[in-house]
Input
Amino acid sequence: MTIQQLPIELANQIAAGEVVERPSSVVKELVENALDAGATQLVLDIEQGGSKRIRIRDNGSGIVKQELTLALSRHATSKIKSLDDLEHIGSLGFRGEALASISSVSRLRLISKPPEQEEAWQAWAEGRDMQVNIEPAAHPDGTTVDIQDLFFNTPARRKFLRTEKTEFSHIDEVIKRIALSRFEVGFQLNHNGKSVRMFPQALSEKQQLQRLAKICGGGFAEQASTIDAVDGDFHLTGWLVPPEHCRHQGDIQYFFVNGRMMRDKLLSHAVRQAYEKYLPNERVPTFVLYFELPSEQVDVNVHPAKHEVRFHRQRQVHDFILTRIEQALMQLVATDSSQSAV
Ligand code: ADP
Ligand code: MG
Output
């Protein structure tokens, strides 16, 4: 056996295995990039559940012509420079892997025009060495990433794709989550040329409740109470549904940590424990919660898709969430029974 350096395309395809599981993972990475670029308006055009096409246009800061090649290269990012930066992550991305990985398992075109640049340019990579080509393009301020034929060259992955409907429902879920985390950003989601979701920018409280109702249902928006609790560096806000109105399925359990949607055992345990003694049989906690803490107290570099985090002060985080939700629920239950007693 001789040891050989892998061609860049192959190395990127292997890396893609970690972050690009299905079309919705591509959508998540691209939307996060647009948000990191300060976009306030995103339009997503999806075809055939994303396996034919995923195109995302944003009005963010764009990428200058000289950096398009870098944007498509692995381990190239504008978001961190040092290990120290990794300790205080303020952006959603930082691995510098998404565009290179996705580009190695699809036909990807990156088109961008920063406001300070006169013309728009487009770039794409091809071949074993992922050689980048650049051409002039027409595009307003911002960026479009246009991806066609996801997994066309990795048949093993392509085989795992489910029906168009299932893949699209995963994409829809990703957009709903992100829309819940960024009320100030407008989202438009189209599938096969039809408008599926339209979330206009929601700056006022009324607009936010409208978005909440669109995503979690009218019942949720009516029944949920707000929570707003602070303790030192910790801040918990969001909406809690009173125990007796909680749902039978756990489909509305959204927990965001510093703006990132999480599926974290510690957090779900704390919420479940807080609800436990009030919850009628076969109901599950129903909530949309946002937990903010200083970025240096949480490690997001645990999982490539960043679904999990590690808290430095695990116990304190758990107890803060548990006790504050318990207190909020106690009040809800008390007001509810005093109302029904009238
Ligand atoms: P990461 O997000 O981890 O930095 P990516 O591969 O997702 O890595 O993106 C590489 C770089 O390309 C980003 O750091 C950013 O500078 C640039 N970029 C990607 N998408 C956009 C976008 N929509 N708008 C502006 N810049 C972008
Ligand atoms: Mg990224």
